[in-house]
Amino acid sequence: MHVVVVGCGRVGSGLAGALEATGHTVAVIDRQERAFRRLQEGFGGKTVVGVGFDRDRLTDAGIEEAGALAAVTNGDNSNILVARIARETYGIERVVARIYDPRRAAIYERLGIATIATVKWATERVLRRILDDAAVEWIDPSARVVLVERAVPGSSVGTKLGELEAEGSVRVVALARLGVGQLPKPDIVLQEGDVLYLAVGGDEVEALDARLAGAAAGGSH
Length: 221
What we know:
CATH superfamily of the largest domain: NAD(P)-binding Rossmann-like Domain
Helix content: 25-40%
Number of domains: 2
Largest sheet: 6 strands, parallel
Distance between the termini: 33 Å
Low-confidence stretches: 216-221
Strand content: 25-35%
Structural class: alpha/beta
Number of helices: 7
């Protein structure tokens, strides 16, 4: 997957290196050319000097082929603008915006943009939002139970929360909606933008993802 990272500070440079190390192609945009010195030695991705909301610079960074974008500059307004352009103009679904003011999180979530609060989150949390295979929060010592975070896919919107536990192999631990967490109730109807925290058997994660993706075909609405 190709990923565009806007902002080459400590988070952006670390994120770019981690993505490249896992086999993804990366392009980094920053206003200052000297910022690219933070990238790890041997970084093989592309660097673009400019502002992240400049569409020419985004094109230079390969936005049209990108599967994800992370806006991690030091400005909330710039990050949300870049994130909205990525979602609304280029149709990128995996978009993350770093924020400094957590009070804005609910507003951003209503726009369908995942937000990463600077104090609570770091590079690994951004990776969990971008990469499906990194979205494991906790594993017990025996690896028999894992806690995973999953954004509700479009195919599961309209499904009742209780249906996910119907087969007995999954327990919904919590649900986050518009940036606010809540304890699960079986009759809650899943909405676009919801994030689920689920306990599942260590060998059942792939089956869980298949169930979420196929809920529209197999679930009752």
